[in-house]
Design a protein that fits this description.
This protein is mostly helical. The chain has helices at 19-25, 28-49, 64-76, 79-91, 98-121, 127-130, 133-140, 142-145, 149-170, 173-193, 207-223, 231-259, 275-289, 296-305, 309-316, 325-330, 337-374, 377-393.
Length: 397
């Protein structure tokens, strides 16, 4: 018996698709989850840049704001895993596209090259910093330099998708499950119980873990899950995973503060490849997979802004902005928990809205530039080349 996740509506027999069907085809529930995941990512970065996350050490008992930070981080830590699961869920049934990969690289370069120049003109950076050869090289080759760790891991995963999708189509259900289990043992299960750091562990900040998540999402799309079958069960797994993450973290911090033990392990529950980060992501993913959004207006708004989520990340996590943006907004961190909560809420929403507006504008500029380029001989040759490469990936002569 197949326990598949719901799919979008298909066109009617006449080939006409209404607004509701189009929104369903775009899986508005997953687009909403993508937006929520980005809000979680910004929240985690705000906590990190404002010192709300405790450091383990003898005598360093977590204070009120740090306990609050641990609780919030515990419910947000699933965000990156969720984002990759969404990508794997859809890309596992799509043909590899050089056009899509090129659009991603151009979007990244838009931010890495433009932001330093803007900051220099505003006086935030000096031109000597911007024109430093190492800085220029880092911005010109953001994927290879790891300017954004997630983009580097994501692009490597994307390059592997032809091989991964071929394996997913070819392997039996049992073989694919065995492959995923073996990867989980290496990347996730062992490190989740070890009180010492493994030399090969990258905390989930690498393409190996991203590929593992891709295969899990592909398995769920192809075969479904007998366990993650309802919204309530998914929500329960998400909440339970987050609560346990907070309990483990705070428990380890208090043990370390009193005895000096578990200093490393107190950070483990906040690693992306920790077992509870995975189960929490799967629970939230399942919950939203069963979600239905009845309002057409809300669905339209969600589908309009969700493509800008990567741009929100690229803007606020640029190397020249990442460590500065939080203090630009709040200037001084509030000593009171209530005031800090207000600062966090306002900052996260402001960064999100600015990032969405900037990336929607970038999208319009890219669309205009693309149409203008398509009218030139160079643009037509590039189009034919990319089209030929995409046809080659389909196995056609």
């Amino acid at each position: 018996m197949r326990y598949g996740l719901p799919r979008g509506e298909r066109a009617d027999s006449k080939g006409k698709v209404g607004r509701r069907a189009l929104q369903a085809k775009r899986q508005t529930n997953f687009e909403l989850l993508r937006i929520l995941a980005m809000l979680m990512v910004i929240t985690m970065h705000f906590l990190s840049h404002t010192g709300a996350l405790p450091e383990a050490g003898v005598g360093r008992f977590p204070q009120e704001r740090e306990i609050f930070g641990v609780l919030v981080e515990s419910f947000c830590i699933v965000a990156v895993n969720v984002y990759v699961l969404i990508s794997g869920y859809f890309l596992s049934e799509k043909q590899f596209s050089f056009r899509r990969l090129l659009r991603l690289l151009l979007q990244v370069l838009f931010y890495t090259l433009l932001i330093p120049a803007v900051l220099a003109m505003l006086g935030v950076l000096s031109w000597w910093e911007v024109l430093n050869i190492y800085h220029i090289w880092d911005c010109l080759f953001p994927v290879e330099s790891g300017h954004y760790w997630f983009v580097t891991a994501y692009v490597v995963m994307a390059l592997f998708t032809p091989l991964l999708n071929a394996a997913i189509r070819t392997l039996s259900r049992r073989q694919l499950k065995a492959c995923i289990v073996c990867l989980l043992v290496f990347f996730c299960l062992g490190k989740s119980v070890s009180i010492f750091l493994f030399a090969s562990d990258r905390y989930g900040y690498d393409f190996g873990w991203v590929i593992c998540l891709y295969l899990i999402a592909a398995y769920l799309r192809k075969y479904g899950s007998a366990f993650f079958i309802t919204k309530k069960r998914g929500a329960a797994v998400y909440v339970a995973s987050c609560v346990l993450t907070a309990a483990l973290t705070l428990g380890s911090l208090f043990v370390c503060a009193g005895t000096g033990m578990l200093e490393y392990y107190s950070t483990v529950p906040f690693h992306y490849n920790f077992i509870l980060s995975l189960t929490g992501a799967l629970g939230l993913f399942t919950c939203f997979a069963r979600l239905r959004i009845p309002s057409e207006r809300l669905s339209g708004l969600i589908c309009r802004i969700s493509p800008a989520m990567l741009g929100v990340y690229l803007l606020h996590e640029h190397v020249d902005i990442s460590s500065r943006w939080a203090m630009w907004i709040i200037r001084d961190v509030s000593e009171h928990l209530g005031g800090y909560l207000i600062q966090m809420t306002e900052s996260v929403l402001l960064v999100f809205l600015v990032g969405v507006c900037v990336d929607l504008l970038r999208g319009r500029l890219f669309a205009l530039a693309g149409r203008a380029l398509a009218r030139t001989g160079f643009g037509r040759r590039c189009g034919r080349l990319l089209g030929g490469l995409d046809e080659m990936m389909k196995g056609q002569p």
